[in-house]
Amino acid sequence: MANTEKKEPMIFDIHVAEGSNYEVGKQRAETLKEHYPDDIPYYTSPMEGQGYISAATAHKRMMLIDKICPGFTDEIQGFADEIGVESEKIICYANSYHNSYNCCQFAVLPSNTSDGHFYVGRSYEYFVRDERSLCITRVTGKPKHIGFSLQNAGRMDGMNEHGLVVSMSSTAYLKPLDGNGCEFWVAIRAILDRCKNVYEAKCLLEEIPLCTNTNFLVADASNHAAIFEVASFSTDKKRMIERKPFGDLLVATNHYVSHEMNEFDEHHFWNSELRYTSVWNSLLRDAPNINDEKIRKLLSTPYPYGPCCHFYSSGMGTLRSMIFDVSEKNLKVSFGPPDMNPWHEIDIDTPMGLEEIICKYDNIEIENPEHFWREMYRGFGGHSTIRSR
Q: What pLDDT, in 10s, does the model give residues 280-326?
């Protein structure tokens, strides 16, 4: 693997906001106006090649989102009012957004840890140009939570004050979504705002109309964990399967694992299979003596022996790694690839304000892209083989 020229450091921000949903949205807009004005068009412009949808269609989408996640549209309204645009333009952009998020996530229950703690680990891979805001959000009347934003008020992952953790990894992302419903970032925000445990999160995911191809990992302070594999290929072909821990371990990357999801397991690439296997084998090797230090080492291990990737120009660069200590209800984050950057412990009760963190990264070419992106096929018995072309 040959290094390309070293890039400028990426800048992340830790943004703390509190008050009503409207005030939280307004505070986020104030921060952008003052510190990141060039980022505002990202939230207010339609996707390339697309126009704005009608106000009537936007209103229907707002009503759907607000039913699933009450207060979400108020937050968008506060944001929109502060920057001086119509809220339906922001909602339109958010609802038309769909792309691949290359993630690895795993849960280690206390029976496998040397300190008796329950850990959830997460690695997130994408292009450098992405939202890079870790939001500590304390909305009046709702559980305070911490997690990375997507489409401003949405969340890609997080933990709330009850110790409920939720994260995601994309699946079948080249398969078009069909029908009405909410994407994963609305569902995750709703879970953080409305749920205390895995059972409540499961009920919510079953209740709301989902339109996403996603593995949701959910864990709670009562030592319960599950992965909900969701496929939304068409209005008459949707499914959600609950995958429970095996040997008190759970792992998910960018493909389905449950046999019941075989028919949906399309665009399952070799790199996802390899990341899944390397993480699973590492956890098996270290159990029952896994601890915070060993999880940090695992998340810092470069591909193909671990989940840490440096292929930023291919959309497979590690932007962040996270360790949720569910037992202690705390979070450690490495901004940027963890083999090059320190870990930060983040407090959900951090005072209001903004903190910037500069991280380092190297962009590396994928040595054999044909092999890296080779498509796998789940055949009889659920075993993965290379798909013939």
A: 999 999 999 999 999 999 999 999 999 999 999 999 999 999 999 99
- String of b and e for 351-372 (b: at least 16 CB within 10 Å)? eeebeebebebebbebeeeeeb
Closest C-alpha among 187, 191, 386 to residue 271 = 386
Token pair in block for residue 19: 């008050």
For the record, the structure tokens of 11 come out as 């800048």
**What is the CB neighbour count within 10 angstroms for residue 180?**
11
From the list 254, 261, 241, the residue with the least C-alpha distance to 173 is 254
Residue 5, domain member (yes or no): no
How many structural domains does the chain have? 1
Q: Report pTM.
A: 0.93
Q: Which domain holds residue 343?
A: 10-20+100-386
Q: What is the pLDDT of residues 195-215, one digit of tens each?
A: 999 999 999 999 999 999 999
Whether 44 contacts 159, CB under 8 Å: no
